[in-house]
Amino acid sequence: MTERAAHAEPVRHVLFDADGVLQDLPGGWYAAMEAYLGGRAEEFLHETWSDELPMLAGRGDYLPLLAASLERYGVRTPATEVYDAVWKNIVLIEESLDVVRALRRNGYGVHLGTNQEKYRGAHMRTALGYDELFDVSCYSYDLGVAKPDPAFFTRAADRIGADPDTILFIDDTAKNVTGARTAGLRADQWDFTQGHDTLHALFEQHGVDARITA
């Protein structure tokens, strides 16, 4: 039985992850932090990512925590300056955005499902124009739960107003794909380094028309 035949309803919505799918941090996180921490950049990032986890679910304020961590590591640069230089250093993957626009033109609901704390999320919504690009935006800090928890996807489907089985989720992380499937969504793992032909092949498997026409 094919993937398409296994489902009673066709895909009507596509839910996209952000980092690794729609956007990238040039050179990677470790290189970005080396300017401030040298050889301790990786150690610092893993520590601060762990500290950040409650903020991804909307609990707490990340900037004071980041400031305290930087001070502990002997970094004198203000936390807001480091945050702007690293966390907001986002490059959009234009070919991915073209796919988003094509799906909307072809009649699909197109939505964002991403783990972010409130400051980076606000930057994405406004400075990057995601509020205008997507029909529904599901930021973890706003939903109150982060991927890969299946509750993230249940709440996202409720916000979209659609049966989970009619939503296809695209994410670059295997555990998030598993969480989505557990919640009843269709889901596939993909990141932009695999090339967009691979993404289009995934869409074809689900009967999704993502053709980009002039």
Automatic annotation (TrEMBL):
<dbReference type="Pfam" id="PF00702">
    <property type="entry name" value="Hydrolase"/>
</dbReference>
<dbReference type="InterPro" id="IPR036412">
    <property type="entry name" value="HAD-like_sf"/>
</dbReference>
<dbReference type="GO" id="GO:0016787">
    <property type="term" value="F:hydrolase activity"/>
</dbReference>
<protein>
    <submittedName>
        <fullName>Hydrolase of the HAD superfamily</fullName>
    </submittedName>
</protein>
<dbReference type="InterPro" id="IPR006439">
    <property type="entry name" value="HAD-SF_hydro_IA"/>
</dbReference>
<keyword id="KW-0378">Hydrolase</keyword>
<dbReference type="InterPro" id="IPR023214">
    <property type="entry name" value="HAD_sf"/>
</dbReference>
